[in-house]
Every structure is written in structure tokens, then in C-alpha cells.
Amino acid sequence: MKYVEFNLPTIIRAGIGEFKKTGSHLKEIVEGNRIFIVTDPGIEQTGFVKEAVTMLENQGFEIRTFNKVRPNPRDIDCKVGGEEARDFSADAILALGGGSVIDSAKAIAILQCLGGEPQDYAGRDNVPKKVTPIIVVPTTAGTGAEVTRSSVITDTAKKIKFTIKDVKIAPILAIVDPELTYGLPAHLTASTGMDALVHAIEAFTCKRCNPISDGLALQAMKHIYPYLRKAVNDGNDQKARYNLMVGSTLAGMAFSHADVASVHCMAEAIGGLYDTPHGVANSMFLPYIVEYNAQTELEKHAIIARTIGIASNADSDRDAAKRLVAEMKQLAIDLSIPSFSSLPEVNENDFDYLAESSYLNGSTSSNARNITKEDYLELFKMAYSNEFKGVSQYN
């Protein structure tokens, strides 16, 4: 029997209107009075940062804001943030934004306390001691980073992504309020929602899965899949927004206690080289990896198809998996997510580098089916030419 350890040090306060309680929530949990807010220019324009500052100042907190986070967060920006947080003597870090903001905040917390470069802490359990407490207010329903122990950062010199995985960077509090996503543009709702769905699928199918992560992943799918198209089509659909937000958090809990796999390996490879938005990149490769993995893990992929309601118990596992591949492809089309070949920056001469980068990703070993650099290369070519092997290849 597989050994299972479940450690979620994050308090979750989820519901409509929870953001408006940010000041009182932090007053209960933060020791000290200096809050370092990590965000990005886009979130500042929404007014959320100003609102948070007012709430915190009303509780007697002193605030400094760092707004230099960019998509696919950079090591150089995290280092600047760490220096500013150290100069401020921050007692806690409040991440207000999407996945890039949250991942940056985790790296900034490390660098404030320990210095060095973000790369010094890459891999599993390489953060030697506690870091500045992190509180997270997600503004997208996608990464689940509010409940994970991971931070994915771009090495700007090497143009690759690396991951810091350590329970010591898990947030102490997540304030999960779907109201903050009501104004999210359709394309961001689509890409972040697909990211959450990929988290759930890979957590459920990867080699590091366990009964607890399986339960969380399947429940996440039930919240995400039926509501993703609805949220994209109507950003003010409160039920859809709520379910996506809850589903994203559940998926974050799932993959944080299992892993992601080869979809993320490929997505992070093109994100590092081309700066492709992470959710978009995941969407591009999901159906190809689902098909690749279903050839040896047919039952689990059939369970996914039945869980999200696109197959029934009367369908064979092969037919269910076939429907899953087709639906993941159609879902990306319906959500207007671009194909891999439509990205103007993509160059076929880069495929060997991308395959190597994918293979060296720490989550390659977690993929449901063993995968080589040559397999990755073939998958990049298939995605570029929009070709599938077909379910006749399944065992």
C-alpha cells in the first residue's frame, strides 16, 4: 500500500465577500504590523490593491506595495522584491493577484529571509528554514497556488522555468473570493480555467497520486468542467464563477499533494522560451498527453470522462478515453485558445531544445506513462501539425 502524507498548513476562507474582510483576517493571524503587498500593474488598475491597503491601514498595519510582477514571473523581479521586503522588514507578505503574483510572493518570502538567488532553492525541500508568512488573495480561478507548496519561476538567462517545492512556502492563509474574478476578461477566464482543469487531470493520473489527492482531483473536475464554458461566455455568472474558484483551489490541493506531469513539462518549456501564457500552453498540449497516457493508463482516463459526464458506465474504457481526448481538444477550440502552430514565435528548429527542456523538468518522472526526450519531440511535432495517433493505439 502506498504511503500517504497530507500536510495543508493553509487556512482557507472561501466565499463571496471574504475579500472585504481582509483587514480583520490579517489582524487575527499576522504577528507584527508591516505588510508587504505583492501584485502587478493590471491588478492595481482594478482598484483591489487600493481597497486592500485601506482595509489594512484601518487595522493599524503599515504597508509597502511591490507591483513589478510580470507573467511567467522572472527571477530578477523576485530578487528585487526580496530586497525591498527585507529593507521594509516585512512581517508578512500579501499576494494579491493571479498565479504569477502568488509564485513571485513565495520566492520573495524566501529571498527576504535567506537571500541568494531563487535558483538556489529549486527542487524539493531545499528551503532550509521558515520564511516570511504568506497570505494569498487569488484574483483568477486557475493556478490553485493559494494552497500549494510550489513556486514556478523563469530563469531569464537560460530561458527555462524551475520549480521550488517546499511546505515552508505554503501560504498560511488563503482568502478565496469569487467576486474578484467577475471582471476577468474571457480569454483569461479561459486560460486560467484550463490550467485548473489540467491540474486536476494530472494530479489524478500522475504516478505520485494517492487516494486523498484522487478525491480532491475528481471533485475539482466536477466544479471546473461544467462551468468553464459558462464563465467564459458570461463573466458575471455567479454560480459559474464560484464553482471555478472552488474547483481551482481543490485542484491546487490535489496536485500539491501529488504532482503535475508532462502537460506542464511541455507548457513550462514553451513558457520559458517564448513567454507563452501558462494556461494557454497547458491547453495546447493537454489532448496530446491525454492520448499518450491513455495508451497505458486507460482506466483512469475513462474515469475522468465519466466524472465530467461525457461518457457513461455503459461505454467501454476505450470509448470513454477517446471521448476525453476529443473533448479536451474541442474545449480549447470553444474557449478560443490558440493552437501551438498559430503562435507566431514558434519555430520548428526549437523543437529539439523544447523536448530536452521538457524531459529535464522535475515532473517528467511523475507522468502516468514513461516518457523520453524523443517522445516529447514527437508530441511537439504532433501538436504543431494537429495530428493524433487515435485510440486504436490504446491497450
UniProtKB/TrEMBL annotation:
InterPro entries: ADH_Fe/GldA, ADH_Fe_C, ADH_Fe_CS, Alcohol_dehydrogenase_Fe. PROSITE patterns: ADH_IRON_1. Pfam families: ADH_Fe_C (PF25137), Fe-ADH (PF00465). It comes from the Bacteria. Residues 9-178 form the Alcohol dehydrogenase iron-type/glycerol dehydrogenase GldA domain. The keyword Oxidoreductase applies. Residues 189-384 form the Fe-containing alcohol dehydrogenase-like C-terminal domain. One of its GO terms (molecular function) is metal ion binding. Keywords: NAD, Oxidoreductase. Belongs to the iron-containing alcohol dehydrogenase family. PANTHER family: ALCOHOL DEHYDROGENASE (PTHR11496), ALCOHOL DEHYDROGENASE 4 (PTHR11496:SF102). This is Uncharacterized protein. It comes from Fictibacillus phosphorivorans.
